[in-house]
């Protein structure tokens, strides 16, 4: 009965197309007496374990093979490691250098160049084929006697890792971010041009100094607004001009501080400046906290960030100071 059931299941399995992906095990046609339905397999587990010592036992469900029971020796054979030669091939630890977006030069302890990636070739203005196998300073004599040389020697002689921002010996008024470190008995130089970053930092320092100088001057108001015209930053002279604390001004709309008759003109000029249509200069009447008005000369300039316009910067001075300045210029011309 059981045999007939196995044969029926096996016949049904044959019609359905055979086992799927059983790692090279024999088809059940070659082992009809060891194909067993799942229900029978559970009830006679010990028996099927004995059968599996000599031949695989295929477990079926609704006539479709779903599992195979094999002995441990066969399992071990199937999971043997790949041939040694496929594992022991020495990997080049510096192949990754070609995928790094920084310049990478690899030298031995005699400073013979072993590898140079495409970024290094572009930065140094010399191809890798011209450098590999030659001494570093023969290929790039500009490096000798520079801070680049100092950091490299610390790595070569003391096996020390170093990192620093240094003046670039490869570009006039340029800067490099340099890393020098030992790796697998070699010396690695990794660097990138940071000239633009240094310029941005310097401009930021100049800006901070200017704002501080304006605060000391105490007659030049500074306001920064976002693209919606909301105040993001003000200095003390501007707060003093309007008689309002900084907390009251932050987040307020700048044009709300201007008298009604001047708002339309000021808003138009502000939008033109923020759209990148050039700096604007105009006189507007601002309302102080006491209710009095103050005529201020405003200079509006677009504020640009890394991803486009971020708002505007406005400098404001009382009209009487502007008039004095104009009179001085007229006197100088005479």
From TrEMBL:
CDD domains: PAS
Coiled coil segments of this chain: none
Region annotation Disordered: where it falls in the sequence: 1-27
Origin species: Alteriqipengyuania halimionae
InterPro entries per the UniProt record, alphabetical: PAS, PAS-like_dom_sf, PAS_4, YefM-like_sf
Protein name per UniProt: PAS domain-containing protein
Protein family (similarity comment): Belongs to the phD/YefM antitoxin family.
Domain PAS: 225-277
């Amino acid at each position: 009965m059981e045999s007939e059931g196995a044969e029926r299941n096996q016949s049904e399995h044959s019609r359905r197309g055979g086992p799927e992906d059983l790692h090279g095990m024999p088809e059940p046609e070659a082992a009809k007496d060891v194909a067993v339905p799942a229900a029978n397999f559970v009830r006679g587990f010990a028996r099927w374990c004995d059968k599996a010592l000599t031949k695989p036992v295929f477990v079926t469900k609704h006539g479709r093979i779903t599992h195979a029971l094999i002995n441990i020796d066969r399992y071990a054979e199937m999971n043997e490691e790949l041939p040694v030669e496929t594992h022991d091939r020495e990997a080049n630890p510096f192949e990754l250098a070609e995928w790094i977006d920084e310049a990478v030069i690899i030298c031995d302890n005699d400073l013979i160049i072993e590898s140079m990636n495409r970024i290094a070739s572009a930065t140094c203005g010399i191809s890798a084929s011209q450098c590999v196998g030659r001494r570093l300073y023969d290929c790039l004599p500009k490096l000798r006697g520079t801070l680049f040389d100092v950091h490299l020697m610390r790595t070569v002689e003391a096996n020390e890792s170093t990192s620093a921002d240094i003046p670039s010996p490869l570009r006039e008024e340029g800067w490099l971010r340099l890393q020098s470190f030992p790796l697998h008995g070699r010396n690695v130089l990794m660097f990138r041009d940071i000239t633009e970053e240094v310029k941005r930092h310097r401009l930021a320092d100049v800006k901070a100094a200017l704002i501080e100088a304006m605060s000391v001057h105490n007659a030049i108001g500074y306001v920064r607004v976002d693209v919606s015209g909301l105040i993001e930053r003000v200095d003390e002279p501007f707060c003093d001009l309007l008689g309002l604390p900084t907390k009251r001004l932050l987040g307020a709309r700048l044009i709300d501080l201007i008298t009604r008759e001047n708002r339309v003109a000021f808003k138009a000029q502000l939008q033109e400046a923020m759209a990148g249509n050039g700096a604007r200069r105009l006189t507007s009447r601002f309302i102080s906290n006491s209710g009095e008005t103050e005529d201020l000369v405003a200079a509006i300039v677009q504020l640009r960030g890394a991803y486009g316009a971020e708002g505007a910067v406005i400098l404001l001075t009382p009209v009487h100071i502007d008039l004095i300045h104009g009179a001085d210029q007229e006197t100088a011309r005479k």
